[in-house]
């Protein structure tokens, strides 16, 4: 787990994501929500992200399966130029499951009291391309280390070509595609679970040669 301090905590290289050469990367100083949802409070541009307050970290192994869990007692009010600002309206629990060829993340977000959310956004930017939409927010890839990606708990997921977008340039080259997901405005009154599953061509993810 890495927590960025002032000016970094809200940028995606500091998110609690299992970065891996050729497969998962952040982009310096960029805030787009790489594999971590961004909640926007209704009637404002106030972004809330599940960063900076991880606690109760637990790790368990069973054969070739590794599970990592942690909790957060607040969201990070991710405003530019500020230290993390604790927003206790929402708590969360996160569970990662790592197994050969697959990474799964399940987040449950629980509001202390009902309040209005304007939208939720999340992306998966990758070096892989040739994305095919399979329906029900499931996607396959023709080229690269990523083989598939699927999302539950969000709507309107769609692939976008970002290869010419400078906001997706990493130290080892440009990301090629992003799966962008969102949820429309709603009253946040009950727990919300968001799940994603990333399938990759094992063991190609271990490669340290740029593609």
Mean pLDDT: 91
Distance between the termini: 27 Å
User: SS-based structural class?
Assistant: mainly beta
Helix content: under 10%
How large is the count of helical segments?
Answer: 0
- Helix and strand string, N-terminal first? EEEEEEEEEEEEEEEEEE
Shape: globular
Counted beta strands: 18
The radius of gyration is 17 Å
Biggest beta-sheet profile? 8 strands, antiparallel
Unreliable segments (pLDDT under 50, ≥5 consecutive)? Answer: 206-211
Q: How many separate domains? A: 1
Strand and helix map with partners:
Blueprint: E1 38-41, E2 47-49, E3 54-62, E4 65-72, E5 75-77, E6 86-87, E7 90-99, E8 102-111, E9 115-126, E10 129-135, E11 138-143, E12 146-152, E13 155-161, E14 169-170, E15 173-174, E16 177-183, E17 186-188, E18 192-200
Antiparallel strand pairs: 1-2, 1-9, 2-5, 3-4, 4-7, 5-6, 7-8, 8-18, 9-16, 9-17, 10-11, 11-12, 12-18, 13-16, 14-15
